[in-house]
Design goal:
- The protein is an alpha+beta fold.
- It has 2 domains: about 160 residues, Jelly Rolls, CATH 2.60.120.10; about 100 residues, Homeodomain-like (Arc Repressor Mutant, subunit A, Orthogonal Bundle), CATH 1.10.10.
- The protein is built from 10 helices and 12 strands.
- A hairpin with a 2-residue loop joins strand 7 and strand 8.
- Helix 2 packs antiparallel against helix 3 and helix 5 packs across helix 6.
- The protein starts with 6 loop residues before the first strand and ends with a helix.
- Keywords: DNA-binding, Transcription, Transcription regulation.
- GO terms for molecular function: DNA-binding transcription factor activity; sequence-specific DNA binding.
- Pfam families: HTH_18.
- This is AraC family transcriptional regulator.
- It comes from Dulcicalothrix desertica PCC 7102.
């Protein structure tokens, strides 16, 4: 018989979060259509959850004032102080109970075990793997990914699949390399993509760069997992797929600013940035001036 006091949390049904937490997230990816990862930003009062089981792996990136916390699971406990920058990993399907002493602010990243493995499945010697629980630890890479995805979450009405899926790939490979309960053998990536496969990918990018391209979409062209594709593409070109597409869009925007009378907003749409603010931000980062300043200098 199932324990009626056990709470199941499945973020694909966001309302189940309220079975474990007193408040809904301030903002979440539920309305964004992100189906490979769930991202939420929380501000929760002091709390102790009921015993619960997550359907997805949960990675928590703490961003608030220091709080004392404890995690209870299978007769064992982990405790520590969460300060801004600390992370926690709460694996899927494990029964656990979590406590924190004061108001807590954190970014929540949730990824299913199946998705985690999908992004790296050609590099591993297994189709099943368990993450090891972590509590109030330092991990600058995971912290950076969490903040980057929170920023992306806060951008209104803009799609950026390639950026999002690249972040998921980086997160997946890092979690599986550093926080598993089993020893894994990783496939060595050498040689890059074959010339014909590379050319097919580049031709596709040059044709459809104005769309919201995804990493999964590009990897499927050459029938590779996203992470293995990233590795081979970078070996062949010197940059990641995200960087290549970004550079190509900036290059095309520069051409249109110089050779056309299109508005900056129209150019943003035509090169796949979808809104002027994103074009302006990224153009300034890469060129050193805004699109308007660039056009005025010509």
């Amino acid at each position: 018989m199932l324990d009626k006091s056990l709470v199941a949390v499945d973020v694909t049904q966001e309302q189940t979060i309220l079975n474990a937490l007193p408040l809904a997230p301030i903002i979440s990816s539920a309305a964004k259509g992100w189906n490979k990862i769930y991202v939420a930003y929380h501000r929760q009062p002091a709390w102790e959850t009921p015993e619960l089981s997550f359907a997805q792996h949960n990675v928590v990136i703490y961003t608030g004032q220091p709080v004392q916390g404890k995690r209870y699971s299978e007769g064992h406990s982990l405790e520590g102080t969460y300060t801004s920058g600390k992370i926690g990993i709460y694996p899927a399907t494990i029964l656990q109970r979590i406590f924190w002493s004061d108001e807590a602010e954190f970014v929540q990243l949730c990824i299913s075990p199946q998705t985690l493995l999908y992004f790296v499945n050609e590099e591993l010697n297994t189709h099943s793997i368990e993450l090891a629980p972590q509590f109030a630890i330092d991990d600058s890479l995971v912290y950076g990914i969490g903040l980057a995805l929170k920023t992306e979450l806060e951008v209104k009405n803009t799609s950026n699949n390639l950026y999002l899926e690249s972040a998921i790939t980086l997160l997946s490979i890092h979690l599986l390399k550093h926080y598993t309960n089993t020893n894994t053998v990783w496939r060595q990536n050498t040689g890059g993509l074959s010339p014909s496969k590379l050319q097919s990918v580049l031709d596709y990018i040059h044709t459809y760069f104005d769309r919201d391209l995804g990493l999964v979409e590009l990897a499927a062209l050459v029938q590779l997992s996203p992470n293995y594709f990233v590795q081979l593409f970078k070996q062949s070109t010197g940059v990641t797929p995200y960087q290549y597409v970004l550079n190509y869009r900036i290059k095309t925007a520069k051409h249109l600013l110089a050779q056309s009378k299109l508005s900056i907003s129209q150019i943003a749409q035509n090169v796949g940035f979808f809104d002027q603010s994103r074009l302006t931000k990224l153009f300034r980062q890469h060129v050193g001036v805004t699109p308007k300043q660039y056009r005025n200098q010509i």
